[in-house]
Amino acid sequence: MEHRPDIVAVMVGVAVEGPYSYRVPAGMAVVRGSIVAVPLGPRLTLGVVWGPPKDMVAHNRLRDIAMAYDVPPLSEELLKLVEWVARYTLAPPGQVLRAVLRSSEALDTPKPVIAYRRTGRDPEKLTPARLRVLDVLMDEMAWPKAALIGASGVSASVIEGLERAGAVERLEMAAPPIVLPPDPDAAIAKLSPEQQAALAQISALDPHKFGVALLDGVTGGGKTEVFFEAVAETLRAGRQALILLPEIALTHTFLDRFTRRFGTRPAEWHSEMTPVQRGRVWRGVLDGTVRAVVGARSALFLPFRELGMLVLDEEHDGAYKQSEGVNYHARDMAVVRAHLANARVILSSATPSVETRNNANGGRYAHVMLTARFAEAAMPNITTIDMRVDGPEKGQWIAPQLAREVFSAIERGEQALLFLNRRGYAPLTLCRSCGHQYQCPDCSAWMVEHRFRGVLMCHHCGHEVRTPKVCSACGEADALIAVGPGIERVAEEAAARFPDARRVILSSDMGSNAQLRDRFSEIERGEFDLIIGTQLVSKGHHFEKLSVVGVLDADLGLAHGDPRAGEKTFQILTQVAGRAGRASKTGKAFLQTYHPDHPVMRAMVTGDREAFYAHELQAREAGGLPPFGRLAALIVSANEHDVAMNYAKKLLSAAPMAEGVRLFGPADAPIAMVRGRHRVRLLAQSGKDFDLSGYVRFWLASAEKVTGNLRVQVDIDPMSFM
Ligand SMILES: [Zn+2]
Ligand SMILES: [Zn+2]
């Protein structure tokens, strides 16, 4: 095939399987990675030049590239990442590319800023207002117009008058960068000997080659200081750094720490930013003016051209898995990107994922341990409360022993935390008179009462109704009863038991992110005695006065048929228990459980996390589960159950034979209906060295095409089994 340099393949940012051919008009120069706008149907679409065209297309049938943007081309490493993620997740490459190109605002040349400078000539007429402007402009520096107005307190017309009088001149200045470059030497941390040893282990990884370190250390053990110094090394070497956090919108303390260490705020990347801010960060990353980014998982697709280090804080966190659109796991894809970029990765956690621990055990990742708890504080003493023997009275949720401990912590002027990972008032509402149970009309899920807002709400689709006064089935008044506890109900019990304590509820539905950040600050300042919270409180916050933690239902995560249930429960219990006694006091944590002999509970009580990992790895290996095997879920959904089930059965019979692949299902998914769509699940399991993505792609290609409202969603390495 003859390659005509005036024809190129362009990947467009829409869900299509491959690039299209376009003509390069005379006078336009593009290379692989150039960002362009091309006509697609009736409109222009963003795309990226992918290389020479795949097929011969008649020259005269091609359309021209409409424009090439004046920005550096995307790096080869990023284009390869797009292809890799698409191949692995089975998402169309154009859809993955959209995660890279998301910000079109960034592509226009930034508007210059109007600025003013003194000419040296004085105006004939000097008013007080004019004098104030000239005072500000004393040194010969040019001032941006907005800043000049702010500093002199005059209106724009005063400045324009001075310009007409020839006393000041107007200039155009390049727009200032969105953030100043971080200074790797601004405030070098004094590391403890153990932290120094950890940093040395990370520094020993060749900075020009791919390498992964697991930074494994207890909560409060000083991991952040260590990876900041590793980031500083990367910046000194002239490369860019990316730090991913699971809950970026709430981690102002992390941003403050970065600012203290590097002398300037990092560029941020998360959902609370405006499109203009995102555009400026995106462009800065691409043109190299932004050297360090702190972001949520989607920052993984930012157009770095000199990426030298990726840090994933709380690497085990479920928030790193994206489960809409492209189903990728940011931890795994970060490792892929680092491999393509010859960069280093630090995976940081107090409770590493079983996958990562296994890689460290096998020597594929450097295992960097930090065992000393920061500022001499110890992990809390952990005790289980056997709910079968020592549980609370019916209708209550706080066991007597826990209540006593909470009470005495408050008496001593310390803080206590009651934790239940369930939003709302009660998970189930039923009618005392007729037994009617309130279920979402569109999902196979109970309606959860949120008494605070006066609604019943479905946690799967968000459907909500006002909590009815009379039973909607039998019409009986005041007959609805709440079954089981949610966090609001625990708060109600806490109010009755500890009426004098200053109490606060923390749950993601209790306010905006800004309001929640305020609550966290108030807790840090000691303005509350008793914190009642969901998973929101388990992450990354320092509550120095907190000395007693009660987990009201430590079994909550163990109930589902999820192979990662034990791991997730272990992680969240460790995180929550680790909130106690973080600064100087030894804390106490109490786990209310019906299964005190479960390996997770035993590992918590004895503090023997190695026993937990050993047990968990053994169980995974025996079951052929990750990381010893691979899983892929296929969710078939349709408006009617029979349509979904029949298609899933046909899909199963079309499955190619392959050695070592086991197929399960089809069966109704645990949440069998969501938003009115019936869901049927097939699961494929293989050995760890098998290309399961390739197998599923081949399988779907040989199956009957989906028609009508049928959908097949593929989730490679599923993290949720709902
Ligand atoms: Zn009823
Ligand atoms: Zn619903």
Q: How are the SSEs ordered, and which strands pair?
A:
Elements: E1 7-12, E2 20-23, E3 35-40, E4 43-51, E5 67-68, H1 76-89, H2 93-101, E6 113-118, H3 128-136, E7 143-144, H4 145-152, H5 156-164, E8 168-173, H6 193-203, E9 211-217, H7 223-236, E10 240-244, H8 252-262, E11 267-269, H9 275-287, E12 292-295, E13 307-313, H10 330-341, E14 344-349, H11 354-361, E15 366-370, E16 381-386, H12 387-390, H13 400-411, E17 415-419, E18 428-431, E19 448-450, E20 455-457, E21 464-466, E22 480-483, H14 487-497, E23 503-506, H15 513-524, E24 530-533, E25 546-551, H16 565-577, E26 588-593, H17 599-606, H18 609-623, E27 629-638, H19 641-653, E28 662-674, E29 677-687, H20 692-702, E30 711-716
Parallel strand pairs: 9-14, 9-15, 10-12, 10-13, 11-12, 13-14, 16-26, 17-24, 17-25, 23-24, 25-26
Antiparallel strand pairs: 1-2, 1-4, 3-4, 3-5, 6-7, 6-8, 18-22, 19-20, 20-21, 27-29, 27-30, 28-29
Helix pairs in contact: 1-2, 1-10, 3-4, 6-7, 16-17, 17-18
The protein binds zinc ion (ZN) (2 copies).
One zinc ion binds at residues 431, 433-434, 436, 471, 473-474, 476, 479.
